[in-house]
């Protein structure tokens, strides 16, 4: 087991859902899916995005895609036209999640 | 009945490259070309334009695109489906017919779908007990009623199919859902009915994959180094079968990449609960799909399950919700980050001296280059330069404009190395608030009209 960043083996895409972002992450093998399922808890993801996500983190699973989908509530500074932020739509949040370290 | 229907998606949003549709039509076989021109904010802009000119309020980009492609579209018999009508499908229809006549194209059938625009009906709907409360926070619409800029129902694929059944080669809608642009031709070609939930879910899922154009063919893909020839990236083509299975692909010889990963990436985009993807025609279960690579740049989806749609349509309402602006300066090193922070403090301090203050949640300071997108996760300690972005929002337009005047003075009255101020003083612009709501389906009647050039 070693500490590795998710970007070494996972894929991600993110976008906006109102004032929250959605961050989808998926992997290529069942073993890695079990790994992210176990380690990417809503608490761990909330901690990782502490400076960005001001609200609740919700998690969904899509086993057929070996994917998890996170909703990061209150992470876009108002969302849509209301936000002043550079990344008002959370387009880069997926890559931000891939910077997280896990045990693998 | 065709046993394979080819549906290309050439425009993922208002502002996408015109090369998408142009090359989809020219560089390979195609039966349908779907194009999305709308976003939430777009509708409010279009209502404003229509307010000034009754012949405006639709996506003029669509007409410009047809100006380049109409001869090919007519020659190959490609049928076009676009939500380019915005808030004025009738004016868009007239513009397309004018264009066809100018090009000497006779007999082109152009259809429009109306009924999505409910802005004028809001007082009547409220009076009849349809609250249109905000789906996110439950607020009553009456709290913003005098500031509404647009109000549109998301219309589904059956209206598209009806317009195709009436013979339209060009179908122009207002606020059609993005997936409806793809599911509509499937319904029309394969005779799917309301109640064919699995097939409608497949059509919806195909539409969801294609709806951002090149985002399923290698665009915005994590392993971007694997993507060949971004310049000539191929836009998606859905190869649909009557049983609801479909293949995601792109034209031979184009750039980009279609594999299991690029498709799954897009399936997850803007996703909520993957088991319950709600649309006007059905509820789709994205977790039911079998996703497999069946050839180079070919990914097949099968086994998709769906369920009944809800008895409400989603409504997108926009309203005036104050004013905002942002401005930026470049700050070079040494000590770029410290100097940028000082610049921000100077701006807020000088505004306060002049009696102009903002609440914390009304202010933005970003030091781009030091760690903004991934704040708290990846940050640079001492970059050689940064871009300082400052912004404000509030209900007082004058205060927002006052802020805009205090940025450029920093070049001569702040720390050294401040440059890159371009574009004049930032001015207040409208904040367009987004108000999602639900409306009972029996309150909405869509109408289809087809005319011939």
Q: How does this model look, in words?
A:
- The complex is a heterodimer of chains A (about 100) and B (about 450).
- A 4-stranded antiparallel sheet of chain A has the order 2-3-5-4.
- Chain A starts with a strand and ends with a strand.
- Chain A is about 20% helix and about 30% strand.
- Chain A is an alpha+beta fold.
- Chain A has one domain (about 5-105).
- Chain B has about 450 residues and is of the alpha+beta class.
- Chain B folds into 2 domains: about 5-115 and about 155-310, no CATH class; about 320-435, Alpha-Beta Plaits (2-Layer Sandwich).
- In chain B, strands 11-12-8-7-1-2-3-6-4-19 form a 10-stranded mixed sheet, sandwiched between helices. In chain B, strands 5, 14, 15, 16, 17 and 18 form a 6-stranded antiparallel sheet that branches.
- In chain B, β11 (about 290-295) and β12 (about 300) form a beta hairpin.
- The longest helix of chain B has 18 residues, at about 335-355.
- The two termini of chain B are about 25 Å apart.
- The mean pLDDT of chain B is about 95.
- Classes of the chains: A alpha+beta (about 100), B alpha+beta (about 450).
- At the A-B interface, β2, β3, β4, β5 and α3 of A face α9, β14, β15, β16 and β18 of B.
SSE diagram, text form:
The complex is a heterodimer of chains A (about 100) and B (about 450).
Chain A: E1 3-5, E2 11-17, E3 20-26, H1 30-39, H2 42-48, E4 57-62, E5 67-72, H3 93-98, E6 101-103
Antiparallel strand pairs in A: 1-6, 2-3, 3-5, 4-5
Chain B: E1 5-11, H1 19-26, E2 32-35, H2 40-52, H3 60-76, E3 79-82, H4 89-102, E4 109-114, H5 122-127, E5 148-153, H6 157-165, E6 170-172, H7 180-190, H8 197-210, E7 237-240, E8 246-249, H9 260-267, E9 277-278, E10 283-285, E11 290-295, E12 298-302, E13 305-307, E14 312-332, H10 336-353, E15 363-368, E16 385-394, H11 397-404, H12 410-413, E17 418-419, E18 429-440, E19 447-452
Parallel strand pairs in B: 1-2, 2-3, 3-6, 4-6
Antiparallel strand pairs in B: 1-7, 4-19, 5-14, 7-8, 8-12, 9-10, 10-13, 11-12, 14-16, 14-17, 14-18, 15-16
Helix pairs in contact in B: 1-3, 3-4, 6-7, 7-8, 8-9
């Amino acid at each position: 087991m070693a500490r590795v960043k998710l970007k070494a083996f996972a894929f991600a895409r993110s976008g906006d859902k109102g004032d929250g972002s959605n961050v989808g992450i998926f992997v290529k093998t069942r073993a890695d899916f079990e790994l992210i399922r176990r380690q990417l808890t809503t608490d761990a993801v909330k901690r990782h995005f502490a400076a960005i996500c001001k609200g609740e983190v919700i998690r969904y699973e899509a086993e057929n895609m070996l994917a998890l989908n996170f909703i990061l509530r209150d992470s876009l500074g108002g969302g849509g036209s209301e936000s002043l932020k550079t990344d008002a739509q959370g387009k880069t949040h997926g890559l931000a999640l891939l910077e997280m370290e896990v045990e693998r | 009945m065709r046993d394979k229907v080819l549906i290309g998606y050439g425009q993922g949003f208002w502002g996408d490259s015109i090369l998408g549709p142009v090359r989809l039509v020219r560089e390979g076989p195609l039966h349908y070309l779907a194009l999305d021109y709308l976003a939430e904010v777009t509708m409010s802009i279009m209502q404003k334009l229509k307010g000034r000119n009754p012949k405006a309020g639709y996506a003029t980009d669509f007409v410009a695109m047809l100006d380049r492609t109409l001869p090919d579209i007519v020659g190959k018999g490609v049928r076009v489906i676009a939500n380019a009508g915005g808030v004025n499908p009738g004016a868009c229809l007239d513009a397309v017919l004018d264009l066809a006549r100018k090009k000497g194209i006779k007999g082109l059938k152009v259809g429009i779908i109306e009924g999505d625009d409910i802005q004028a009906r809001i007082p009547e709907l409220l009076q009849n007990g349809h609250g249109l409360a905000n789906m996110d926070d439950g607020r009553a619409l009456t709290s913003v009623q005098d500031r509404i800029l647009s109000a549109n129902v998301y219309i589904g694929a059956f209206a598209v199919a009806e317009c195709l059944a009436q013979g339209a080669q060009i179908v122009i809608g207002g606020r059609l859902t993005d997936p409806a642009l793809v599911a509509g031709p499937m319904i029309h070609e394969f005779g799917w009915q309301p109640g064919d939930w699995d097939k409608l879910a497949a059509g919806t899922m195909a539409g969801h994959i294609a709806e951002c154009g090149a985002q399923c063919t290698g665009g915005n893909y994590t392993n971007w180094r694997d993507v060949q020839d971004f310049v000539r990236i191929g836009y998606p083509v859905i190869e649909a079968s009557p049983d609801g299975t479909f293949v995601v692909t792109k034209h031979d010889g184009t750039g980009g990449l279609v594999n299991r990963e690029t498709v799954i990436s897009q399936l997850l985009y803007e996703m909520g609960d993957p088991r319950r993807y709600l649309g006007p025609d059905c509820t789709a279960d994205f977790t039911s799909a079998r996703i497999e690579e069946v050839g180079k740049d070919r990914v097949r989806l099968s086994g998709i399950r769906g369920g009944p749609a809800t008895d409400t349509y989603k409504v997108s309402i926009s309203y005036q919700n104050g004013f905002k602006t942002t401005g930026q300066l470049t700050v070079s090193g040494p000590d770029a980050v410290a100097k940028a922070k000082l610049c921000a403090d100077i701006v807020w301090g000088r505004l306060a001296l002049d009696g102009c203050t903002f609440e914390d949640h009304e202010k933005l300071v970003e030091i781009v280059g030091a760690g903004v997108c991934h704040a708290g996760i990846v940050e640079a300690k001492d970059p050689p330069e940064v871009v300082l972005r400052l912004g404000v929002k509030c209900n007082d337009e004058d205060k927002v404009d006052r802020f805009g005047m205090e940025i450029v003075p920093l070049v001569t009255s702040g720390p050294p190395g401040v440059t890159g101020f371009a574009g004049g003083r930032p001015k207040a612009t409208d904040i367009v608030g987004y108000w999602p709501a639900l409306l009972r389906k029996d309150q909405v009647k869509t109408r289809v009209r087809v005319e011939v050039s």
